[in-house]
Amino acid sequence: MLATKLYAPTLREVPSDADVVSQQLMLRAGFMRKTANGLYSFLPLGWRSIKKIEAIVREEMDRASAQEIMMPILQPAEIWKESGRWNAYGAEMMRINDRHDNEFCLGPTHEEMITTLVKNEINSYRQLPVNLYQIQSKFRDERRPRYGLMRSREFIMKDAYSFDVDEAGLDESYKSMYDAYTRIFTRCGLTFRPVEADSGAIGGSGTHEFMAIAEAGEADIVYCTKCDYAANIEIGKPGIMKQDEEALQELSVVDTPNASTIEDVAEMLNLPLHKTIKAVVFSIDGKIVLAIVRGDHEVNEVAVQHAVLGSVEPEMATPEELEKVGLTAGFISPVGLKQTEEFAIVVDESVMETYNVCGGANKKDAHYININPKRDFNVEDIIVAPIRLITDDDVCPTCGGTLEHAKGIEVGQVFKLGTKYSEALQATFLDQNGRPNPMIMGCYGIGVSRTLAAAIEQYHDENGIIWPRAIAPFEAVIVPINAKDEALMSTSQTIYTALQDAGVDVLLDDRKDRAGVKFKDADLIGYPLRITVSKNTLENNEVEIQIRKSGEAITCAIDSVATKVTELLQDL
């Protein structure tokens, strides 16, 4: 490819609405352009990298005996209603009606579609196991699209679905996909960790997320420094923190004017945060849920959802919803409250081990002191569960070792679905005895476009992107110092042809711009190798090869360039 033929408009300034490095650099380097909030068009450089990621995914999926198909993006509402997810999926689903007023959605995922497809074709155990996958766009109506490709409304995803006759078969399929994902992200050059995770709206009994470690990641993960334990903080297993036992003091009310946060209350009453409890109120499936944790802890929304067996993601309760159940924001505790069909109380296990703590008095500008949960809560009317997030004071639940925290970008996830969809959609097979059984399913997703963003978040510097060789748009760029010099261009063309013949994915920057402009663009775009052809090249019969990752520059004879470049690329 010649640079004069390449559509790659670069920007010198950082776009004002770009939130994270990957978004900034992909816009500046001419990899994509914003169409609308959460929607992007890929330009040639970006699409080349996307196609290289897809090629790696296809190779490893095919190696794992998965077979590629393609299903419609537009899905009929009927199959989602049959599975029970049409309403449960929530506001992220993009729904439309056709001219005949039939309901459809733009596929956020394809469990219903694949199950409906397979159930009409497979009827015997002899046809199983089978694993089918596709690579296509998915659509989710994000409330706040942000961070470029990391949280967009349209994104490229590889989704695979396995069908087995029993749990042992599912375990084998799951491990096969887990291993394939490990190879995929390794080949893409990512630094990543598989972590235990929550299955969310997909459902199922077991799941792992593959997290690319990056400060820009939205997910918080914890991992043990001594064993293999690693988990998304949403499902991390916090221990019960017990306070030293104290004599129970008399419950009383104190005035706390204008102290609507637990930090304000603690400061006003000169209390450490661990001697307070705080309340967070959610709306889940139309029910108001009061979640209580210690003042020095944070509520884990996923744990709260599981505790009340909710089917949709928690949302913060509105002032109107609080008023409906008689709660006053900023001054809430379970003291004197009882559960109803519309109102649930979930208390963290560590709260139940506190003595003489402070919490809301359920009226404005007032708090209780000397709350003793086992005495003062209506214990028979509350749910006690581990609903706090893990802290730095927690230890590994597996071995008791030290836990470290990190930020991660979810680039893939594998699920054991079991019979959640096959039972709902009557996807059965006849076993050896001629009896019908529901197929045992797994599903496996990779965010292809998100993987691209994650690589940039991990590999960049102040000058631009530093691509892992496997997913770079081009592996090398040839930069003649002066494109108007016929001798330099002739030599550059000779090197270009030699590299192409050697199988190197190479770009010749034949633009007539100044050398400094070309060098800046090469660093910004992030070609792994830059080959400079200068006057010195003609005089000494050698070129300079610069390695983008290390900045190291080496010289090489012209007739050895192809061999040297191929050798250098092996280590990138």
Automatic annotation (TrEMBL):
<keyword id="KW-0547">Nucleotide-binding</keyword>
<dbReference type="InterPro" id="IPR002314">
    <property type="entry name" value="aa-tRNA-synt_IIb"/>
</dbReference>
<keyword id="KW-0030">Aminoacyl-tRNA synthetase</keyword>
<dbReference type="GO" id="GO:0005524">
    <property type="term" value="F:ATP binding"/>
</dbReference>
<protein>
    <recommendedName>
        <fullName>Proline--tRNA ligase</fullName>
        <ecNumber>6.1.1.15</ecNumber>
    </recommendedName>
</protein>
<dbReference type="GO" id="GO:0005829">
    <property type="term" value="C:cytosol"/>
</dbReference>
<dbReference type="InterPro" id="IPR006195">
    <property type="entry name" value="aa-tRNA-synth_II"/>
</dbReference>
<dbReference type="InterPro" id="IPR036754">
    <property type="entry name" value="YbaK/aa-tRNA-synt-asso_dom_sf"/>
</dbReference>
<dbReference type="InterPro" id="IPR007214">
    <property type="entry name" value="YbaK/aa-tRNA-synth-assoc-dom"/>
</dbReference>
<dbReference type="InterPro" id="IPR004500">
    <property type="entry name" value="Pro-tRNA-synth_IIa_bac-type"/>
</dbReference>
<dbReference type="Pfam" id="PF03129">
    <property type="entry name" value="HGTP_anticodon"/>
</dbReference>
<dbReference type="GO" id="GO:0006433">
    <property type="term" value="P:prolyl-tRNA aminoacylation"/>
</dbReference>
<dbReference type="Pfam" id="PF00587">
    <property type="entry name" value="tRNA-synt_2b"/>
</dbReference>
<comment type="subunit">
    <text>Homodimer.</text>
</comment>
<keyword id="KW-0963">Cytoplasm</keyword>
<keyword id="KW-0436">Ligase</keyword>
<dbReference type="InterPro" id="IPR023717">
    <property type="entry name" value="Pro-tRNA-Synthase_IIa_type1"/>
</dbReference>
<dbReference type="InterPro" id="IPR004154">
    <property type="entry name" value="Anticodon-bd"/>
</dbReference>
<dbReference type="GO" id="GO:0140096">
    <property type="term" value="F:catalytic activity, acting on a protein"/>
</dbReference>
<dbReference type="Pfam" id="PF04073">
    <property type="entry name" value="tRNA_edit"/>
</dbReference>
<comment type="function">
    <text>Catalyzes the attachment of proline to tRNA(Pro) in a two-step reaction: proline is first activated by ATP to form Pro-AMP and then transferred to the acceptor end of tRNA(Pro). As ProRS can inadvertently accommodate and process non-cognate amino acids such as alanine and cysteine, to avoid such errors it has two additional distinct editing activities against alanine. One activity is designated as 'pretransfer' editing and involves the tRNA(Pro)-independent hydrolysis of activated Ala-AMP.</text>
</comment>
<dbReference type="InterPro" id="IPR050062">
    <property type="entry name" value="Pro-tRNA_synthetase"/>
</dbReference>
<keyword id="KW-0648">Protein biosynthesis</keyword>
<dbReference type="GO" id="GO:0002161">
    <property type="term" value="F:aminoacyl-tRNA deacylase activity"/>
</dbReference>
<keyword id="KW-0067">ATP-binding</keyword>
<comment type="similarity">
    <text>Belongs to the class-II aminoacyl-tRNA synthetase family. ProS type 1 subfamily.</text>
</comment>
<dbReference type="InterPro" id="IPR036621">
    <property type="entry name" value="Anticodon-bd_dom_sf"/>
</dbReference>
<dbReference type="InterPro" id="IPR033730">
    <property type="entry name" value="ProRS_core_prok"/>
</dbReference>
<dbReference type="GO" id="GO:0016740">
    <property type="term" value="F:transferase activity"/>
</dbReference>
<feature type="domain" description="Aminoacyl-transfer RNA synthetases class-II family profile">
    <location>
        <begin position="38"/>
        <end position="468"/>
    </location>
</feature>
<dbReference type="GO" id="GO:0004827">
    <property type="term" value="F:proline-tRNA ligase activity"/>
</dbReference>
<dbReference type="InterPro" id="IPR044140">
    <property type="entry name" value="ProRS_anticodon_short"/>
</dbReference>
<dbReference type="InterPro" id="IPR045864">
    <property type="entry name" value="aa-tRNA-synth_II/BPL/LPL"/>
</dbReference>
<dbReference type="InterPro" id="IPR002316">
    <property type="entry name" value="Pro-tRNA-ligase_IIa"/>
</dbReference>
